[in-house]
Design brief:
By secondary structure, the chain is α/β, with parallel strands linked by helices. The protein is built from 8 helices and 9 strands. It folds into 2 domains: about 150 residues, Alpha/beta knot, CATH 3.40.1280; about 50 residues, tRNA(m1g37)methyltransferase, domain 2 (Trp Operon Repressor, Chain A). β5, α4 and β6 form a beta-alpha-beta unit. The longest helix has 23 residues. Bound molecules: S-adenosyl-L-homocysteine. The site of S-adenosyl-L-homocysteine (SAH) has 18 residues, from β5.
Amino acid sequence: MRVDILTLFPGMFEGFLNQSILKRAQTKGIVELHIHDLRNYSQDKHKNVDDYAFGGGAGMVMMAEPIVLCIEELCAERSYDEIIFMSPDGELLNQAMANQLSLKNNLIMICGRYKGIDQRVRDHWVSMEISIGEYVLTGGELAAAVVSDAIIRLIPGVLSDESSALSDSFQGELLDAPVYTRPENFRGHIVPEVLLSGDHKKIDEWRYEQSLKKSERHKQAEE
Ligand code: SAH
């Protein structure tokens, strides 16, 4: 998979995408992440990328041209499955969406700033809009990082144990069961005995029960 991220703040991705599992996915050649600085596509001498909103009102708007020039440059090289704009009013990210996106080959993600991007880019170039929750961030960078993380970990070969992602919460009907590691006794808090029993049938039953209970509580909290 190749992901191209269009942003005014490329530095924001450095730490995040170059650590741990996302780093390994790139080193293994499973994923290519390319960060593009939209300022490099500005056509004016001051490298402006935003301007006042037509009709007035507070806040600047990201101009269409730098974004579209960058999209055109990328699309001339390869075809993209989706051109995604990160937006609080987009389709809400969930595990089903992450599963679908993890099957794609090439994705563009556009990070907005200020009041957002010129609506004409959304109307004529963007194919999908994703929100990571019903709240407003200062920019789309964190949202693009969240979406990238959620989809890249699902690509075969990225996690060392692939079955791990399948048992995650939201992957099936049930939330994941609680997990414990050494020591058995941590400050007087003991690991559930069944997990130490070595009886895999019993352990599976216990995990299933725990998952059921957690899922019920989650459902009730949502209602
Ligand atoms: N005026 C806009 C918000 C702009 S916030 C509105 O009310 O809809 C600036 C940018 O941050 C947005 O263009 C978007 O790219 C990003 N952003 C903010 N909140 C987000 C969210 N919940 N999900 C995805 N992207 C978000």
